[in-house]
Design goal:
The chain has about 230 residues and is α/β, with parallel strands linked by helices. It contains six helices and eight strands; from the N terminus they run E-E-E-H-E-H-H-E-H-E-E-H-E-H.
């Protein structure tokens, strides 16, 4: 397994990404979609972990139009302030275009089987939902995605498998929003929803304030099984 910075050709120009590749042989691709903190160590570690399981895991720099190569943490008020500002200025539509370009990049890699999934957290959870609706990704998984309830008009466009992990105590996705998401998606045959009682936002972020290893492991096993089913 090895990780490197790569250049991705997008519709509006070139941008960078972190690519973790398996040691040898062929494997599916996986877009790891960032939180609001950029392509930071948390995201790179996730990509490395997926590469160790045989995936070509790519974390595209989706904030490149605002500020290239952002690497923030969840440990300081200053980083949180900057991360929230970036999220508020982020163009979701352009982000999805960049994700499609990243999918195309992975499919062109020697060794990639052509199957490509997406795995997103927080902001990336919303983008994973939109990836299922707007791109040709083969399967997508979103953890505690924010603002999905405001984009449910796109639910009918979902044509590939999507799994969403919903944290019931998520301060950024309150119960009324969760209810809207579930009501709109629960009867969609492409969508699998899992709820996690008592879990707060970012319960799967290793080292985060709300990290819960038991529930994170439970969700991650579900995700791994889902990707094996749809990307093998």
């Amino acid at each position: 397994m090895s990780g490197q910075t790569v250049t991705i050709q997008g519709k509006d120009g070139e941008f960078s990404g972190y690519l973790a590749s398996p040691g040898a042989g062929r494997g599916p691709g996986l877009i790891v979609i960032q939180e609001i903190f950029g392509v930071n160590q948390v995201m790179r570690d996730i990509a490395d972990g997926m590469a160790s399981r045989g995936y070509f895991a790519l974390v595209p720099d989706l904030f490149w139009r605002l500020e290239p190569k952002v690497q923030l943490t969840d440990k300081t008020d200053a980083d949180w302030k900057k991360a929230l500002d970036l999220m508020n200025r982020f163009d979701v539509n352009k982000g999805i275009e960049d994700i499609q370009a990243s999918i195309d990049h992975l499919r062109a890699l020697p060794g990639c089987t052509g199957k490509v999934g997406a795995l997103g957290y927080c902001l990336g959870g919303q983008l994973a939902y939109l990836t299922a609706a707007r791109t040709n990704a083969d399967a997508s998984v979103g953890y505690y995605g924010v603002n999905i309830q405001n984009r449910l008009d796109e639910a009918g466009k979902i044509a590939h498998p999507l799994m969403l992990h919903i944290a019931e105590a998520d301060e950024y996705v309150p119960p009324p929003a969760q209810a809207k998401i579930e009501a709109s998606l629960q009867n969609n045959s492409h969508v699998t929803l899992y709820r996690y009682p008592l879990m707060n936002h970012a319960f799967a972020r290793v080292g985060g304030a709300h990290y819960d290893k038991a529930m994170a492991d439970h969700a991650n096993i579900r995700s791994a099984t889902f990707f094996r089913q749809h990307l093998s």
